Amino acid sequence: MSLLIKGAALFGTETSDLLVVDGRIAAVGSDAASQAPAGVETLDADGLVALPGLVDLHTHLRQPGREDAETVLTGSQAAAVGGYTAVLAMANTTPVTDTAEAALRVWELGREAGLVDVQPVGAVTKGLAGEELAELGLMARSAARVRVFSDDGKCVHDARVMRRALEYVKAFGGVVSQHSQDPALAGPGACCHEGEVSGRLGLAGWPGIAEEVIVARDVMLAKHTGSRVHVAHVSSAGSIDVIRWAKAQGIDVTCEVTPHHLVLTTDLLVGYDPVYKVNPPLRPTEDVLALREALADGTIDAVATDHAPHARHDKEHAFVDAAFGMLGLETALGVVRTAMDDDFDWNDIARVMSRTPARIAGLDDHGGQLAPGEAAHVTLVDPTARVTVDRAASVSLSRNNPWHGHELTSRVVHTVFGGKVTVRDGALA
Ligand SMILES: NC(=O)N[C@@H](CC(=O)O)C(=O)O
């Protein structure tokens, strides 16, 4: 099995051919074509940028339990269309991924779908209840090799439990990805950012400080335990200040931002459209600008989608009653490219959407340099295309797409996963 990718601009610079043999990059450069076997399948990448396949640290695939909203297969399809070759599948399914068996099942479903590496995230606590640690060690030692643990959707709010989780995962190089949200400060019924807009609209909100106090506590726990903490979907400028400080102290903390928190603001709530209801909530412009700055200067390590599909009957309600969450996999690259200015180049995109997320998740086979010997996970992007998003065109099972009607810069044209073309000319192959 071989594939010749012709004329791609590697990381947006040098134009080169890439020869893939048996799922690995065999040669790069002007002599790659001459080494190709006769009858090799070719992929025209003229004018396209080649990046290592994208890696999403934060995807909700909804299987098991809510296959009406997304399955491992449809989520994998959405990921491939978005240029991803690996996704971390969050544990808040029904039942929760809190045992080795549950993790293995998600991992196997991912292999059956065969479009991206589906790496299960293990719950930190049994049933996401925040009380008793889940089977962290058994999940880590299983064939699924779980390394990232998260109660996402809920915060591990008990400091004693968080301390024990950090101590435990340290033994096998794991990381706790925290949904930083103090439940007391985010009170019952809160559905958006607490501020001028929520006051005007009569909606109960929660403030940035509900996130910041947990981020501050957790970086101190990471320091105390000598373990590694990852802040999921960071959304407030105050959290950035804490993380910047913690990194300067040498504390082992990483964080991710979602594409939507880089662009969308709390002002969008004026129409009470539940498509904009998300957790953490959309914040004011000051926070959005601080997040972009932090992504550019490296304080934020990664972009992660928090792809959160919801069936119509869960999302299309009055704002206060609708489910939290929005789609993200298919639009992430375009949103990041559109949000960040040209100083943020393709090498930066590869860093925050592939290389660093792969390192955080311990996925050694991903996030490479597009060099010989590496697994052939490659995303090919048209850097000048302008695409108007149409939610009806999505391959996700759900339609809660906040980007409907937005024009985004750049388009994923082909995706190659382990040498196999999963997406060709923008469509599933
Ligand atoms: N991000 C979201 O708004 N929703 C997530 C869970 C969560 O983080 O609340 C979901 O699973 O739907």
Overview of this protein structure:
The active site is at residue 306. GO terms for molecular function: allantoinase activity; dihydroorotase activity; zinc ion binding. Pfam families: Amidohydro_3, DHOase. This protein has 429 residues and is α/β, with parallel strands linked by helices. It folds into two domains: 2-49 and 374-385 and 404-428, Urease, subunit C, domain 1 (Roll); 53-361, Alpha-Beta Barrel (TIM Barrel). It is 28% helix and 22% strand. The chain contains twelve helices and 19 strands. It has helices at residues 32-35, 72-81, 100-113, 136-141, 159-170, 196-201, 209-225, 237-248, 285-297, 312-315, 332-339, 346-361, and strands at residues 2-10, 15-21, 24-28, 41-44, 49-52, 54-59, 84-89, 117-120, 148-149, 175-178, 192-193, 205-206, 229-231, 253-257, 302-303, 378-388, 407-417, 420-424, 427-428. The strands form four sheets. Strands 1, 2, 3, 4, 5, 16, 17, 18 and 19 form a nine-stranded mixed sheet that branches. A hairpin with a 4-residue loop joins strand 1 and strand 2 (15-21). Helix 5 (159-170) crosses helix 7 and helix 7 (209-225) packs parallel to helix 8. The longest helix has 17 residues, at 209-225. The two termini are 16 Å apart. The chain binds N-carbamoyl-L-aspartate (NCD).
Cα-to-Cα separation, first versus last residue:
16 Å
Assigned CATH architecture of the largest domain: Alpha-Beta Barrel
Helix content: 25-40%
Q: What percent strand?
A: 15-25%
Hetero compounds: N-carbamoyl-L-aspartate
Rg (C-alpha, Å): 21 Å
How many domains, in number, for the residues?
2
| Biggest sheet overview | 9 strands, mixed
The name of the CATH topology of the largest domain is TIM Barrel
What spatial form do the alpha-carbon principal axes imply? globular
**Count of distinct strands:** 19
CATH homologous superfamily placement of the largest domain: Metal-dependent hydrolases
Contiguous helical run count: 12
